[in-house]
Amino acid sequence: MANSCFTACFLNINKRKIMEFRVLELFSGIGGMHYAFKYAQLPGEVVAALDVNTVANAVYAHNFGSTNVKTRNIQSLSEKEVSKLHANMLLMSPPCQPHTRQGLQRDVDDKRSCALSHLCSLIPQCETLEYVLMENVKGFEGSQARKQFIEALEKASYHWREFILTPTQFNVPNTRHRYYCIARKSKDFDFEAGKIWEHMPGAKADSTQHSTCKISTIVEPNVPAETLVPDDVLTKRVLVMDIIHPSQSRSMCFTKGYTHYTEGTGSAFTPLSEAESHSIFESVKEIDMDPKNTNCEAAQHRRLELLREVKLRYFTPKEVARLMSFPEDFEFPAETTNRQRYRLLGNSINVRVVGELLKLLTSL
Question: Which of 138, 308, 314, 359 has the smallest C-beta neighbourhood within 10 Å, fewest atoms?
């Protein structure tokens, strides 16, 4: 069971508008935005959730029921449909691939940007939409797509604010810097416009890590042997892996390539202390520094045995879900493979960060 610091800290909502929110969730994935809406304890319901990914939609339906989730190309969404739903809140996390550092950064020229471009033309037409929250990868803030999006908000007379935030600012031991924009029509926000906020209004800019939960709080007690890092990866790639110990309060951003690629896709876990693993790696370094050991079978065998003692393993999908602040009752259907689970989580959002932004968006 995850530590209580991963249980949603539902705050007093006296200042929140008394209204029923009817949420349209686009690029809905596995339901991160839906969980964030529940986290924020807002009155209302998700009236429709749309995504083209059938595997993600199956996970969504498994957790929320199949009534409102639909496999749809968002470019086919019309103002008439939005009005018919009486949707007054739009939550979305459009594809980030056109803007990622690892990608080609083709921005609006990437066909995966077409859905967002369509929404930019649709938003000014949808008079019922009072609230908008959008999440994307860090880097989106400098894109042409962001310019289009802000222009659409301006045209529809929204008040809007932008953020670059990471879960470590919310007591979650995971680094995942993301761009967020919140917008509403009813009343302007009571904090400064014209800048990208790198912390929540009222919080200190450097208020990260000071009270962040330790990784030990999200670790499952018994994990299957297949989570162990394979010998070939240990032998060739261990030195580029980000290794996390139980007492640490951090982890890398988990991407859809986790476990499939070694470097830059997420952290690995060892149950050993930092001192214990450091001692083992010093012994490995001694072997590596002796040229005679390069082609010595006995030395390489000893090296592998030492690395096995670290008991290095991948974080399980359940643990990654906890690091992304999904609640304990979230689960994948049995037929979803681990590869699919990691990909879906890597494409999702941090529930707590979005939940706190929803509170800010809807506060008076």
Answer: 308
For residue 50, give the nearest of 21, 73, 83, 34 by alpha carbon. 73
| pTM score, whole prediction | 0.91
Active-site residue, from 96, 120, 213, 253: 96
For 41, the token pair is: 């304890």
Task: Determine the Cα–Cα distance for residues 225 and 272; give it in Å rounded to an integer.
Answer: 17
96 belongs to the catalytic site: yes
Cα distance between residue 321 and residue 352, in whole Å? 12
Find the distance separating the first CA and the last CA of the chain, reported in whole Å.
35
H or E element that contains 49: strand 44-51
In one letter, which amino acid is 298?
A
CA distance 238 to 250: 19
What type of residue sits at position 285? K
The mean pLDDT values, 10 residues at a time, for the chain of 364 residues are 47 54 97 98 97 97 91 94 97 74 55 84 96 95 93 97 98 97 96 97 66 92 95 94 97 95 95 97 95 94 97 98 98 97 97 98 92
Measure the CA–CA gap between 317 and 258, rounded to whole angstroms: 10
Report DSSP state, residue 43: S
